[in-house]
Design a protein that fits this description.
The complex is a heterodimer of chains A (about 400) and B (about 150). Chain A is globular and about 75 Å long. In chain A, helix 4 crosses helix 11 and helix 12 runs parallel beside helix 15. Chain A is built from 15 helices and 15 strands. With about 400 residues, chain A is α/β, with parallel strands linked by helices. Chain A has a 7-stranded mixed sheet, sandwiched between helices. Chain B is of the alpha+beta class. Chain B is about 50% helix and about 20% strand. Chain B has a 3-stranded antiparallel sheet with strand order 1-2-3, with helices on one face. Classes of the chains: A alpha/beta (about 400), B alpha+beta (about 150).
Chain lengths: ~400, ~150
């Protein structure tokens, strides 16, 4: 199955030596998605929502079909709960500026997971500082579970809880349902970052009963420039418009404006119909393969990698060793070699990994790991890729004059 | 010289034995400057001891990739004992090399060991690692000349 799927990604035909292990950062794109985008740009292009002519009608139709595809993919109730943004970061900022600033009061607290990506952390620092609220953290025990003590940070004063489903730097799939339940008990709003979860595991926002959920298209085989904010209807009603101007209005006079309904009032200006169409096509691509299949595929590669790493005493893995508790990524360190050097030398062998702090500096400080390496799997990765990775790491150790 | 990345690393590893001697604190620093590459985790504090117009001693502390550490150490060996203006010429020559300007024989002689970093001009992802400490030196010299 995988070799057939890999053929659908032209980059691997063009650069056969490329072993791409950075899908958690951004995914490579299949023919299907790019062809759909090209077709839309050439033949189905127009101004959505604005015109009275056919071109506008077709663009509008594609845009709405994309919304429906997302709605059904993540289990939302209807398309009024789906807002398109540029990416997950913009979606999180929209929540922070449009909701956080008006719904977190002085003296309340915001609870954030220590594993949060900066995009689901820095905006909450801003809200906490502006509104004189306290910023608290959920910390990890040595098995990667949230500690009992830090879970107690969610209390009657908690206005909002922000966590990822899967940590992009630690690799664990958090016990997010438990955290959502704790938040609900105290009436706190939940902001769930699904950037590493969507397309890697089944997602159902209604079942999970989260208030806000975000993800980025470019991490699920869609182009960069399209992201999704899901908000439960009742909560979304209370989000103030973030970007103001075209399309999100009802009546505008010189001094006054009334805003449109949902989700329109949270989407200003001409929308990224191309990106939305690409996202819809990527969702169809994923559904054709099946999310469960994709999860199984990634898990087998994670297991293979963990087993290989276990044999090498100079590799230290960050996060749980149990693949069932992980997403499709592994963060690790190679003893004696700085992650940036590992990444450069692997790059020389055609192997693409990520090195650094993975946009999680507070987590890295907490783990006392200023920099680390990360490999992450997509549908085009194979067991050969894992073998090449291991050989590559041995080569890196060799260059540095260490045992390998 | 057109070095591939593993050749660059081999060169660096060979000079690595020399490089640790500059990783220390100074007894009487007159300036210090911290530089970091947040993207990759290089974090270096550079110490300088000026004696009038001459760089009497220099050192560094911190952590970072092999390229940043080696570049720092090689730079320190180069500038020790030089005057402020001689160091400024070295910095400019180094930056020119990194930017891709071809170096003539005199310039190569001037840079001594630092010429191994010439190939960084074809490695945009690693340039900041190689230039980190040179920027620190640049800032420190600039600040001290304002007194």
């Amino acid at each position: 199955m995988v070799s057939e799927l890999k053929k659908q990604f032209p980059i691997f035909a063009q650069t056969p030596e490329l072993i791409y292990l950075d899908s958690a950062a951004t995914t490579q794109k299949p023919n299907l998605v790019v062809d759909a985008i090209a077709n839309q740009l050439l033949y189905e292009n127009g101004s959505p929502h604005r015109g009275a002519h056919k071109s506008s009608v077709i663009a509008t139709k594609l845009y709405h079909e994309a919304k429906e595809a997302v709605q059904s993919f993540i289990g939302a109730r209807d398309t009024s709960e789906i807002v398109f943004t540029k990416n997950a970061s913009e979606a999180l900022n929209l929540i922070a500026y449009g909701y956080g600033l008006t719904h977190v009061s002085k003296g309340q607290n915001i609870v954030v997971a220590i594993t949060s990506h900066h995009s689901n952390l820095v905006p909450w620092q801003m809200v906490a500082k502006k509104n004189e609220a306290e910023l608290r953290y959920l910390y990890l025990d040595e098995d990667g579970y949230f500690t009992k003590e830090s879970l107690e940070n969610i209390d009657q004063g908690t206005a909002l809880v922000a966590i990822p489903v899967i940590s992009n730097a630690y690799g664990v799939r958090h016990e997010f349902e438990k955290v959502i339940a704790l938040a609900k008990k105290v009436g706190a709003v939940t902001v769930i970052d699904g950037a590493q979860a969507v397309g890697h595991m089944p997602v159902n926002v209604r079942e999970w009963d989260c208030d806000f959920f975000v993800f980025s298209g470019h991490k699920i085989y869609a182009p960069q420039g399209i992201g999704v904010l899901y908000g439960k209807r009742e909560i979304l009603e209370n989000v103030s418009p973030f970007l103001l101007g075209g399309d999100m209005i009802e009546y505008v006079s010189e001094q006054e404006t009334t805003f449109a309904g949902l989700p329109e009032r949270l989407e200003a200006g001409t929308q990224n119909v191309t990106g939305a169409h690409g996202l819809r096509t990527a969702i169809e691509f994923i559904q054709q393969i099946g999310v469960e299949q994709m999860a199984l595929h990634e898990r087998s590669l994670v297991e293979m990698t963990l087993a290989a790493f276990e044999k090498l005493d100079y590799i230290k893995v960050i996060g749980p060793k149990d693949s069932l508790r992980r997403g499709g990524l592994i963060t690790f360190m190679v003893e004696g070699v700085h992650p940036h050097d590992v990444a450069s030398l692997l790059d020389n062998k055609g192997i693409a990994i990520r090195a650094g702090h993975h946009c999680c500096q507070p987590l890295m400080t907490y783990l006392k790991a200023p920099a680390s390496c990360r490999v992450s799997f997509g549908i085009y990765n194979t067991p050969n890729d894992v073998e090449a990775l291991i050989e590559g790491i041995k080569y890196v150790r060799k260059v540095f004059g260490y045992e390998y | 010289m057109d070095m591939s990345i593993d050749q660059l690393y081999t060169e660096i590893i060979m000079t690595h034995n020399k490089s640790q001697h500059n990783k220390r604190l100074l007894d009487h620093p007159t300036q210090m400057e911290r530089g970091h590459n947040p993207n990759c985790g290089d974090d270096i504090t550079f110490f300088l001891e000026m004696d009038g117009d001459v760089i009497k001693d220099a050192s560094y502390m911190g952590s970072g990739c092999a390229i940043s550490q080696a570049s720092t150490s090689i730079m320190i060996d180069l500038v020790k004992g030089k005057t402020r203006s001689e160091a400024e010429v070295l910095i400019e020559t180094f930056f020119n090399m990194i930017r891709g300007q071809a170096q003539n024989e005199d310039e190569k002689d001037l840079l001594e060991d630092a010429v191994i970093f010439e190939s960084l001009n074809t490695m945009p992802a690693r340039v900041k690692c190689g230039t980190l400490s040179w920027h620190c030196l640049d800032v420190v010299l600039h600040n001290s000349s304002e007194k």
